[in-house]
Amino acid sequence: MEAMTASGIDYTIYFYNPNIHPREEYELRKAENIRFAEKEGVPFVDADYDTDQWFARAKGLEWEPEKGKRCTVCFDMRFERTALFAHENSFPVITSCLGISRWKDMDQINDCGIRAASRYPGLEYWTFNWRKGGGARRMLEISKREHFYQQEYCGCIYSLRDTNKWRLANGRPKIEMGVKFYGDSATA
Questions:
Q1: What are the beta bridge partners of residue 92?
Q2: What is the reported pTM?
Q3: pLDDT band at 188; cut points 50, 70, 90
């Protein structure tokens, strides 16, 4: 948000994440976005939670690894809806903060965003490198200050499955939703 403001971008949060499962996790993440948007006075758009469409698009890709084809399909779906909303509401730019995560492939994310924006004349995708200039460190500082919910997997049910499998194989407990927040003594 700070990078967009510093770049002169007046932004709106568009929350479209039908990939996040289970519903409890989706609601936690959405609530955190709403809380931040309200505190900062940022417009917030709550888009549809159309999980049936997401599962239909991910069909056959259930065993793809993180950063694989399933992620591309997921990003495409979400960026397509975002680009359509932007076009219909006269937004000239779209972007995503997904690239802040070291678990994501920034080129994959940017390719999907550029592809979606290119469908509409005058719409651009902003390929900002969220990791440069201490972006990840700043994200952690803000997360701790705001006591944000700590997301421990990408969001989709397959990521949850694979993360829990890895955790168990490495002597760690399965993910417990809704219990870890940045700034807690266990996560500080």
A1: none
A2: 0.91
A3: very low
